[in-house]
Backbone:
């Protein structure tokens, strides 16, 4: 956030100069603009009661129903399944199970027979607490407030547990759960109270009042009160059940109703804001009660004949008929300044009945209370889209027509009509209701919310048409104002619905001017959207209200992904340019309330960079340009006019106003519990507002073009002049708003500073006149008025005086520490000195800090020498400008960011200097005041401990670099401090960092991550590494990947795939090294040849690159085979060509057949030994074919068996060689069809079989006796002999010798 020094400097400067440097006139002009926007915001959307009851409208049924998912009012954010243990109980048939929601304590209650479980559905481990100390089956559970003074302060609620036999009260306490890291959760503890009352009637509904009274509805249809007190007395038991529906001694009040068994009370609802009770009977009768004195209630009113009253307001509606008119739930409406609705009732088919106080006073009721009457009937949507069709939306080709009956939806085949609603929820104008779906496992959820674009005034283009086309219900009287229109949709939800309840939100502070409860446009950038929980038998579903911001974000995403501009045009037409620009500015700058999943709102949620660019572009284009409007008198211009500002300027003003709305008119201070003044707004709220303001300021600072003018379309001189006037006025107004924005950010930092220094204490040290001014200030006054300047000036002076005094005291404490000979006293003086210096760190300059650091070094005070500079680094860089500059790699930000970065670095350098000093003092004698136990080694060790314990990531990075530079990297790896990994990964990376990083992972037991780093290091193009080093890194990577445990982190399959990839890369790198070594002698042949060869040592190549760029151009057959072998690429034509080339080359070099044969052996054998059995590089049949053809062409000069013996030397098994030769023998393809060649092959076979036999007979042979195919060879020899030419006596003798050996040995 912005530095407090800026606000303090401007206020302090005015103490020296009479004329303040702050332009108050500009600030006040900008503040007036904010006022105008806040007033428009308050007037733009009426309260829902104002819409419903406008000009005598008694019924309405207008809805906006769309077949796309951009405008659905709610979306499912999260589903949390019931824990398995409880779910198993629930699905068991031999138990009785009930459940419900307790949103105040963030629990679901689930009863299984007599056992009660409270499930924390939001915790990471879904904790469950239980209560099992009563024997009866639990039918209902409710949460109520306890009576004050009866329990200890820790008890915040009572659990009312209802069974058929009794009602039990259990005390409950809530406390923050420190064990949860993901969200602030609540720990629940249950306490027995011994408050139990036996029953004659089972209780089916419970309601509690704010003062702790408990009212219940019995199965007999009567209204009861469970009265409890601290002790029994003559006049009452400690706990008793009072029947308020039947007169008698037990009720202690006159009888006012007779229990009617035919019209039983079904439920009781409390209205804590008005202190009323409502009961609902089976015949749709609503009774109103007011709890009065202890044990008594006053019957206020009975609302009966509601069906008749409803029918009179909409006589021809098919939704109103006696068979389906059944009220299922009552919902008290929270009071607000403009709302007159007290109660909403919902029927089984979705009709909503709105009750408001009547204009006349009722008999027997005080002047403050008026009886309720049915004032409006809201009919359900009759043309809902079935959820099955909603899941496959199609955007309509034309925008929806305003006023079309029931929000006409084209191409709809299955309109859905509500008929059996069982659960409902109404909160702040939002309605959710569940009814059973078409299949057993699904319920349908009706979601409705006000469509503000239909009755709000946003200067939008699709203004409502005349009253004749509005969707009022026939027969009613209407005015010119548009009716209430709501978005409506059906969502499917898994399971059967048990309860629906809103997620509890903090109460909204009253601000002036007040906005309507339903005006989410005014509040969406400053508070969380409404969320509603739906409990089904499968778990808890959390639904979140989709705001206009969410709708706009989806529109931008659709435009970015599909280049579809229609939704953007619809949005702009619906909300108008000012509202649209304000929301686009919110999305572009980021906001703490954008991410609905972030419940803490502690950080700015931003769009993806590319989407933020789209938002900025839309902001610029949708905002249009300002216009100059001249005043004319009798048709002539008097050259005086006003600017009509662009949507960009108005959008900026509106968004700015909405951000400061919660505080702008709020008092700066209030009286705290201790009697001293304190900030009227909490630090958390101020920080959130400040973050959002700063995000807006940062966007505008970085994108000044958003308010630049663009070339006009008109060339007329006068038009151009008017346009310039308009732009001049716009720029002046925007400039004033930006000045106010900057000043507001600084002022909030100043208030937070005052809170740090205890606002009340600071204020008490001011003059009485200043105190009076401060207590009268609002936040607006503090920022924009002379009184605000005067007050802030005085407060700054008090802080400065206090800090100067603290520095003097701190220096005195250092002097005392230096003079004392008692180590304990010296540590106390030094600790107090450090505390005072820390408190006054905001006015410490670097020179003073360096002086203090020297004192701490001299006194060997490690804690002060390390902690004070660290704290000063944060104080000097309160906005984290320097930290962000460092995070960006010193590439983003201006002079301010760089200056903050340099100040941080100087603080860190002082710490490093202290560490060096402490190390250098090892060989020096201790000061005279030191005791023998204070060894300098201990001081040095303590200093390093404090340094490593720091949470300042930037300091850690500086410290690590310093230690590595002093050759202490191995020590760092042994310690493995918390930020070391991030430091080694941080840009700019280097081979040295990666060397340490992979070793870090090895020592940390993460070999797979070490392998990943080594792989990156080997493959990186940005490092100047030779080929040998890269090969070494890949080898190490493979070794580490193989060391990865099978079960670590569930990454086994990923690790195997990674290892396989590494091994393949290693093989390719080895090929590259071989190619490089082969070509290295030619590096000086020609410049371009040398450059290409040298490139092999610079980076790793792929196999394709090696083959295409080296093996082929340099025409190296062996390397070609190597590439084919490693890549396992099988291409018979290519490999055959390569082998032909090898044999042709040998034939060309020598003309003598024997010399050729001698050269073939040392050429082919190594290749065979290396590549066999690879069909990619050593296809046996091709090689054998070439060898046999070679021998046949020179059969007169080469001995029998020359070809097969070469293959044996290559490592080819005898059996496979025989198979290949036998195929040639049997073949009739030239040259094997010539009889002389067939006989020559037979001679080769004879030699092969003889060699094979000898090898099999040899001791320790690799060929087992059982593997030798005796029968097959014996049979084949008979064939060979029978077909042998008589001249082949030697071959025949060889065959016969083999047969004899076979018979002798087998």
Residues:
């Amino acid at each position: 956030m912005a530095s407090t020094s800026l606000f303090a400097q401007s206020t302090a400067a005015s103490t020296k100069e009479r004329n303040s440097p702050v332009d108050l006139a500009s600030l006040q002009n900008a503040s007036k603009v904010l006022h105008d926007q806040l007033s428009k915001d308050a007037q733009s959307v009426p309260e829902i009661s104002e819409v419903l009851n406008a000009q005598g409208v008694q019924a309405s049924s207008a809805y906006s129903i769309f077949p796309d998912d951009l405008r659905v009012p709610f979306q499912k954010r999260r589903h949390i399944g019931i824990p398995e243990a409880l779910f198993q109980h629930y699905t068991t048939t031999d138990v009785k199970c009930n459940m419900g929601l307790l949103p105040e304590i963030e629990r679901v209650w689930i009863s299984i027979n007599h056992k009660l479980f409270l499930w924390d559905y939001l915790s990471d481990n879904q904790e469950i607490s239980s209560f099992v100390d009563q024997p009866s089956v639990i039918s209902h559970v409710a949460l109520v407030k306890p009576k004050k003074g009866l329990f200890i302060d820790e008890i915040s609620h009572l659990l009312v547990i209802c069974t058929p036999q009794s009602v039990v009260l259990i005390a409950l306490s809530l406390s923050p759960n420190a064990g949860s890291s993901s969200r602030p959760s609540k720990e629940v503890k249950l306490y027995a109270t011994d408050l139990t009352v036996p029953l004659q009637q089972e209780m089916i509904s419970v309601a509690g009042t704010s003062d702790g009274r408990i009212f219940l509805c019995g199965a007999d249809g009567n209204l009861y009160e469970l009265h409890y007190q601290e002790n029994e007395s003559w006049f009452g038991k400690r706990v008793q059940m009072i029947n308020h529906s039947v007169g008698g001694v037990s009720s202690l009040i006159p009888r006012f109703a007779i229990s009617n068994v035919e019209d039983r009370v079904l439920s009781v609802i409390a209205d804590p804001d008005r202190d009323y009770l409502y009961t609902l009977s089976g015949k749709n009768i609503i009774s109103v009660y007011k709890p009065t004195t202890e044990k008594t209630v006053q019957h206020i009113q009975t609302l009966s004949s509601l069906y008749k009253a409803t029918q009179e307001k909409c006589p021809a509606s098919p939704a109103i008929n006696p068979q389906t008119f059944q009220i299922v739930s009552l919902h008290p409406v929270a009071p607000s300044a403009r709302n007159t609705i007290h109660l909403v009732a919902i029927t089984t088919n979705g009709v909503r009945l709105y009750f408001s106080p009547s204009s006349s006073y009722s008999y027997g009721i005080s002047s403050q209370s008026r009886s309720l009457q049915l004032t409006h009937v809201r009919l359900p949507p009759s043309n809902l889209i079935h959820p099955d069709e909603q899941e496959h939306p199609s955007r309509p080709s034309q925008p929806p027509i305003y006023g079309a009956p029931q929000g006409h939806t084209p191409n709809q085949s299955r309109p859905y009509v509500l008929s059996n609603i069982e659960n409902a929820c109404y909160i702040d104008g939002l309605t959710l209701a569940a009814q059973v779906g078409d299949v057993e496992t699904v319920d349908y959820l009706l979601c409705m919310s006000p469509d503000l674009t239909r009755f709000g005034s946003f200067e939008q283009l699709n203004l409502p048409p005349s009253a004749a086309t509005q969707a009022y219900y026939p027969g009613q009287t209407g005015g010119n104002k548009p009716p209430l229109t709501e978005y409506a949709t059906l969502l499917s939800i898994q399971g059967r619905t048990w309860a629906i309840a809103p997620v509890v939100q903090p109460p909204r502070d009253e601000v002036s001017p007040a906005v309507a409860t339903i005006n989410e446009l005014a509040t969406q950038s400053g508070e969380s959207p409404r969320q509603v929980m739906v409990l089904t038998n499968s778990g808890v579903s959390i639904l979140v209200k989709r705001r206009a911001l969410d709708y706009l974000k989806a529109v931008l995403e659709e435009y970015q992904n599909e280049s579809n501009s229609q939704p953007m045009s619809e949005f702009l037409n619906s909300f108008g340019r000012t509202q649209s620009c304000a929301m686009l500015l919110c999305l572009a700058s980021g906001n703490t309330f954008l991410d609905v999943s972030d419940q803490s709102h502690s950080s700015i949620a931003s769009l993806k960079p590319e989407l933020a660019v789209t938002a900025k572009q839309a902001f610029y284009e949708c905002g249009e340009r300002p216009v100059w409007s001249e005043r004319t008198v009798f048709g002539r211009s008097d050259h005086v006019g006003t600017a009509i500002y662009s949507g960009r300027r108005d959008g900026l003003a509106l968004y700015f106003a909405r951000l400061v709305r919660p505080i702008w008119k709020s008092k700066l201070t209030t009286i705290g519990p201790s009697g001293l003044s304190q900030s009227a707004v909490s630090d958390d709220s101020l920080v959130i507002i400040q973050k959002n303001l700063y995000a807006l300021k940062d966007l505008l600072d970085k994108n000044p073009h958003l308010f630049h003018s663009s070339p006009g379309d008109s060339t007329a001189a006068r038009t151009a002049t008017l346009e310039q006037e308009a732009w001049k006025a716009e720029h002046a107004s925007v400039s004033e708003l930006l000045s106010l924005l900057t000043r507001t950010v600084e002022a909030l930092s100043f208030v937070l500073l005052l809170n740090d220094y205890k606002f009340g204490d600071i204020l008490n040290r001011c003059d009485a006149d200043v105190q009076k001014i401060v207590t009268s200030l609002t936040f607006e006054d503090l920022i924009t008025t002379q009184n605000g300047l005067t007050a802030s000036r005085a407060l700054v002076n008090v802080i400065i005086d206090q800090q100067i005094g603290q520095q003097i005291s701190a220096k005195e404490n250092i002097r005392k520490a230096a003079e004392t000979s008692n180590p304990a006293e010296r540590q106390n003086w030094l600790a107090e000195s450090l505390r005072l210096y820390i408190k006054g760190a905001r006015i410490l300059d670097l020179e003073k800090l360096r002086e203090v650091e020297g004192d701490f070094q001299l006194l060997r005070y490690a804690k002060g020498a390390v902690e004070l500079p660290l704290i000063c680094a944060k104080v000097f860089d309160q906005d984290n400008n320097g930290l962000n500059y460092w995070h960006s790699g010193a590439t983003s930000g201006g002079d301010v960011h760089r200056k903050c970065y340099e100040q941080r670095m100087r603080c860190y350098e002082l710490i490093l200097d202290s560490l060096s000093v402490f190390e250098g003092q090892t060989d020096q004698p201790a000061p005279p005041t030191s005791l023998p136990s204070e060894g300098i080694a201990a001081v040095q060790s303590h200093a390093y401990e404090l340094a490593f314990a720091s949470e300042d990531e930037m300091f850690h990075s500086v410290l690590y670099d310093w230690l590595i530079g002093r050759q202490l990297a191995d020590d760092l790896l042994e310690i493995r401090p918390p930020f070391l990994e991030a430091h080694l990964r941080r840009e700019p990376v280097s081979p040295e960092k990666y060397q340490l990083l992979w070793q870090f992972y090895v020592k940390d037991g993460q070999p797979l991550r070490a392998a990943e780093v080594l792989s990156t290091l080997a493959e990186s193009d940005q490092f100047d590494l030779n080929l040998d080093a890269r090969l070494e890194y890949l080898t190490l990577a493979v070794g580490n990947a193989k060391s990865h445990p099978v079960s670590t982190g569930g990454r086994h399959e990923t690790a195997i795939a990674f290892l396989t990839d590494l091994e393949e890369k290693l093989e390719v790198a080895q090929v590259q090294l071989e190619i490089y070594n082969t070509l290295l002698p030619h590096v000086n042949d020609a410049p371009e040849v040398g450059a290409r060869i040298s490139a092999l040592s610079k980076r790793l190549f792929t196999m394709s690159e090696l083959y295409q760029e080296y093996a082929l151009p340099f025409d190296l057959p062996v390397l070609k085979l190597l590439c084919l072998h490693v890549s396992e690429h099988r291409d018979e034509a290519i490999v055959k060509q390569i082998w032909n080339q090898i044999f042709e080359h040998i034939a060309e070099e020598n003309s003598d057949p024997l010399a050729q044969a001698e050269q073939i052996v040392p050429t082919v054998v190594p290749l065979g030994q290396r590549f066999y059995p690879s069909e990619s590089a050593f296809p046996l049949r091709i090689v054998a074919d070439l060898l046999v053809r070679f021998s046949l062409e020179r059969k007169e000069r080469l001995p029998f068996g020359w070809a097969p013996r070469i293959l044996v030397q290559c490592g080819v098994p005898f059996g496979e060689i025989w198979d290949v030769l036998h195929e040639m023998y049997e073949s009739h393809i030239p040259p094997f069809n010539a009889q002389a060649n067939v006989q020559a092959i037979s001679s080769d076979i004879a030699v092969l079989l003889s060699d094979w036999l000898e090898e099999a007979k040899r001791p320790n042979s690799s060929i087992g006796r059982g593997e030798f195919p005796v029968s097959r060879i014996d049979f084949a020899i008979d064939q060979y002999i029978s077909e042998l030419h008589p001249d082949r006596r030697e071959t025949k003798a060889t065959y016969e010798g083999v047969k004899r050996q076979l018979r002798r040995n087998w």
